[in-house]
Amino acid sequence: MQFMANFKCNHTAHSVQAYFAQFNNYRFSSDFLGQHEIVFFPPALALQAAVDHAQFEIGAQNAYPTRSGAYTGEIGLEALESLHIRTILLGHSERRTLLGESQEFIAEKFQYFARHGFRVVYCIGEPLSVREQGESAVQAYLRAQFDGVMESMEEILGSSGHNPARVSVAYEPIWAIGTGVSASVADIASTHAFLRTLTCAPLLYGGSVNAINAREILSLPNVNGVLVGSAALDPKSFYDITQAGAN
Ligand code: PGA
Question: For a tag site, which of 6, 65, 93, 221 has the least CB within 10 Å?
Fold first, then answer.
């Protein structure tokens, strides 16, 4: 299983240090570490602190598809490489909606970072208005979120899909993010079954995952991990999710 924590615009360099002082102390058996993965996406200003203090993989929540240059407010490949960061989250619904990132721009980022050897965690998900139109509307919406991305993704995965450590797809229905109410297991199961027809990449579910619902969600077929926001902000709560999923 893949357990991924998205801190969003939460935590600072200082609080991330305290977070890992606690999280690093939790005991993960070598069996667990052999079978499961834990990845953290702290905010940009806490990346250095996370790299310095975490004993786990660290990824960026966003970056601009450039090595460096005149892109005010952005971070580029050079900055990430200087921290030895090789993992990036792309396509999150908050960047699509709040920051206005188009599918075309997200695809450009995907291709750029994939080309530069990054592991990409690619987020997709429909708004409530689409979910209310039924399953075929959801499927059409999600399919369109692979425009410009699918080819690059398949290239990374290789013809036999044997490179699952390089790309994951996180299904995060927008109406379940940060609401405290996850999608139903029936909705997650049917959507992941559909996504499995599109790709052999590991499929994560995200949207109000917590230590209580994680076990059931992670037991569903075609669910290979979770992407956790709110419930990952506290180290004990995120640790509990990893244990719920592992047992
Ligand atoms: P949430 O966020 O767990 O707070 O719903 C998940 C996400 O947006 O990645």
Answer: 221
Shortest-distance atom of ligand 1 to CA 207? 5
Tell me the whole-structure pTM to 2 decimals. 0.96
- Confirm whether 92 is a catalytic residue: yes
Decide if 216 is catalytic.
Answer: no
Do the Cβ atoms of 134 and 187 come closer than 8 Å?
no
Strand partners, 87: 119
Residue whose CA is closest, atom 2 of ligand 1? 229
The dihedrals phi and psi of 15, each to the nearest 5 degrees, come to -70, -25
Among residues 11, 53, 92, 192, which one is catalytic?
Answer: 92
pLDDT digits (tens, 9 = 90+) for 195-242: 999 999 999 999 999 999 999 999 999 999 999 999 999 999 999 999
Number of the ligand 1 atom closest to the C-alpha atom of 231: 3
Domain boundaries 2-246, corresponding CATH code: 3.20.20.70
Q: Using an 8 Å Cβ cutoff, are 88 and 76 in contact?
A: no
Q: How many residues does the chain have?
A: 247
